[in-house]
Amino acid sequence: MKALVKQKAEPGLWLVDVPEPVVGPGEVKIRVLRTGICGTDLHIRKYDDWAKSTLTLPLIVGHEFSGQVVEVAEGVEDIQVGDLVSGEGHIVCGKCRNCMAGRRHLCINTVGLGVNRDGAFAEYVTLPASNVWVHRIPVDPDIAAIFDPFGNAVHTALSFPMVGEDVLVTGAGPIGLMAAAVATHVGARNVMITDVSPERLDLAGKLGVSLALNVAQSSIADGVKQLGMREGFDVGLEMSGHPQAMRDMIANMTHGGRIAMLGLPSEEFAIDWSTVVTSMITIKGIYGREMYETWYNMSVLLEKGLDLSPVITDRFSYRDFDAAFDTAASGRTGKVILDWSDAAPRA
């Protein structure tokens, strides 16, 4: 089968022929239809310091995907050949303290699809049945392919109550855009999103935010005035990993404000801890998705009319992966999708 492989310890990815994966005990084999390009995939392609210290090569990359089930191992229940599915890319041990307590998203032994084991940028992928999410209601395969990052957005946005609250989202990348859409959909009063990319801020406008603010031109305090707010933000969703974004967010929170931080900084940085303490601000780190409450929430949000289609801005054949990766790395787009549906069908 064809697969995108990190073959060499240098920048780049290679489209090569590799053996089809074999279904193991308790696993499901899936014919991949669509994949989404993630920031992690960009790091792997670039082969930066994180990639050098994390990956064992060669590796099939990719963890955002949708596909159709073609084979299930004996004993697997509730998953049928032909089902449209997405995959939870964090594979947990099931035996550590958090797993045993039902907090699987906190598993200390998590293995990442497309990072620690062969991933989904391929014609076929296998996963433990417990990591396969079957779409019981109709979902476009493009949308199903971004359930992983959509889950990050939902996990972040729903960490704190949203109804009637004023919400600040810093970072209008694809996950920030989806988090802003969720906040608006579930009843936040004002949702302001910030970025420096006019293209991404234009996308935010299509998702119904109250204000898409270019922080290269205006301050968050200016945005507060534009919205007619008398106090700071109740909830902050930090999606950029940028030090100044976090500092500005803290400076514009109301007393008792709550911040969910998904953005991953590239290095340590200082913040105003005096304000955090004296304003009694809560900061919560977010990683991945709650298994599988977030997945249930995602499906219901779509069922109840949340429209994520504006977030997907570019589609490419998997054969044009280099152009797709260049587009995703530009920082000016929404989600970039690779289409694998024209790959050779299974004999």
UniProtKB/TrEMBL annotation:
Its cofactor is Zn(2+). Zn(2+) 2 binds at C93, C96, C99, C107. The gene is tdh. One of its GO terms (molecular function) is L-threonine 3-dehydrogenase activity. Catalyzes the NAD(+)-dependent oxidation of L-threonine to 2-amino-3-ketobutyrate. Zn(2+) 1 binds at C38, H63, E64. The keyword Iron does not apply. Residues 174-302 form the Alcohol dehydrogenase-like C-terminal domain. GO terms for cellular component: cytoplasm. Homotetramer. NAD(+) binds at I175, D195, R200, L262, G263, L264, I286, Y287. Keywords: Cytoplasm, Metal-binding, NAD, Oxidoreductase, Zinc. GO terms for biological process: L-threonine catabolic process to glycine. This is L-threonine 3-dehydrogenase. The keyword Cell inner membrane does not apply. PROSITE patterns: ADH_ZINC (PS00059). Its EC number is 1.1.1.103. It is found in: Cytoplasm. Gene3D superfamilies: Medium-chain alcohol dehydrogenases, catalytic domain, NAD(P)-binding Rossmann-like Domain. The record marks D148 as: Important for catalytic activity for the proton relay mechanism but does not participate directly in the coordination of zinc atom. Binds 2 Zn(2+) ions per subunit.
